[in-house]
C-alpha cells in the first residue's frame, strides 16, 4: 500500500471516528437555557424568548408559552353513556365537541380540579374518579400539561359554569363517540387522546 492509499485509509478512519464521537455526544438531547426574556405575561399565559445551548454546543432561540396546565374528565353515566360538552371555541372559530376540561389554579390538586370541572360543566358529581395519564398538548412551543381522569358512578346535579362560559352537555354511546372521532366530527386533541386511553381499558 503506497502513501496515497494510507492517507485515504486514515481519512476514512478519522471521519468514522469523528462521526461516532459526534453521535455519542448527541445522545443527550437536552437543551440548556442560557438566558430568558419575558415578552408578555398575562393572568394565564407567559410568552418567553430563551437563548438555549443545543446538544451540538451551538446556540439557538426558543420562543415558548408557559401554561399552568389543566385537567380532562371522561365521565361515564351508570347506563354507559359518555358525557361530552359542546362549546364555541373562539380561537378556531367553531363549535367543538369535547370531554369536560379546565385550567388548573396552581397549586391546586389535579383530582380536586377534575371534580370541580366535572360539576361545573356537566352538573355531575362523583366519588369514583381515577387518574388515567397525562398529555402535553403542544410541546413544540407550549408547556401545557393535561391530566386525564375517568369518572364513574355519576350523580346528576346542576351546571355551575363560569360567567363567560357557555356549554351544552351531550351524551354519547361508545360507538357514537368512536364514530364521531373517526369521521372527523370530533377533532379536539384531548378528547381523542382520552378516547385512546379508554380503548386501552377496554371499556364497553
How would you summarize this macromolecular structure in one to three sentences?
The chain is α+β, with helices and mostly antiparallel strands and 204 residues long. It folds into two domains: 29-66, no CATH class; 70-201, Nucleoside Triphosphate Pyrophosphohydrolase. It is built from four helices and ten strands.
The oligomerization state is single chain
**Percent range for β-strand residues:** 25-35%
Fill in the CATH topology of the largest domain.
Answer: Nucleoside Triphosphate Pyrophosphohydrolase
Average pLDDT, rounded to a whole number, is: 89
CATH first level of the largest domain: Alpha Beta
What is the N-to-C succession of helices and strands?
HEEEEEEEHEEEHH
Strand segment tally: 10
Largest β sheet strand count, sense and barrel closure = 4 strands, mixed
Rg (C-alpha, Å): 24 Å
As laid out across the biggest beta sheet, the strand order is: 7-4-9-8
- Count structural domains: 2
**Between the first and last Cα atoms, what is the distance in angstroms?**
73 Å
List the helices and strands and how they pair.
Blueprint: H1 3-25, E1 32-41, E2 46-53, E3 59-66, E4 70-75, E5 82-89, E6 94-98, E7 101-103, H2 110-122, E8 128-136, E9 145-152, E10 168-172, H3 174-182, H4 189-201
Parallel strand pairs: 4-9
Antiparallel strand pairs: 1-2, 2-3, 4-7, 5-6, 5-10, 8-9
Amino acid at each position: 500500500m503506497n502513501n496515497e492509499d494510507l492517507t485515504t485509509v486514515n481519512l476514512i478512519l478519522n471521519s468514522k471516528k469523528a462521526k461516532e464521537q459526534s453521535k455519542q455526544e448527541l445522545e443527550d438531547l437536552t437543551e440548556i437555557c442560557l438566558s430568558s426574556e419575558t415578552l408578555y405575561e398575562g393572568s394565564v399565559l407567559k410568552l418567553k424568548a430563551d437563548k438555549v445551548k443545543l446538544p451540538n454546543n451551538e446556540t439557538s432561540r426558543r420562543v415558548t408559552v408557559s401554561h399552568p396546565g389543566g385537567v380532562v374528565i371522561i365521565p361515564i353515566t351508570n347506563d354507559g353513556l359518555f358525557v361530552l360538552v359542546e362549546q364555541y371555541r373562539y380561537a378556531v372559530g367553531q363549535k367543538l365537541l369535547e370531554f369536560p376540561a379546565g385550567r388548573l389554579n396552581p397549586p391546586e390538586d389535579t383530582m380536586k380540579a377534575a371534580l370541580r370541572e366535572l360539576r361545573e360543566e356537566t352538573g355531575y358529581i362523583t366519588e369514583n374518579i381515577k387518574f388515567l395519564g397525562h398529555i402535553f398538548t403542544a410541546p413544540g412551543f407550549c408547556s401545557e400539561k393535561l391530566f386525564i381522569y375517568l369518572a364513574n358512578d355519576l350523580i346528576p346535579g346542576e351546571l355551575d359554569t363560569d360567567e363567560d362560559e357557555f356549554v351544552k352537555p351531550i351524551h354519547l354511546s361508545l360507538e357514537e363517540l368512536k364514530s364521531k372521532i373517526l369521521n372527523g366530527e370530533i377533532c379536539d386533541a384531548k378528547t381523542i387522546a382520552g378516547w385512546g386511553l379508554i380503548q386501552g381499558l377496554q371499556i364497553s
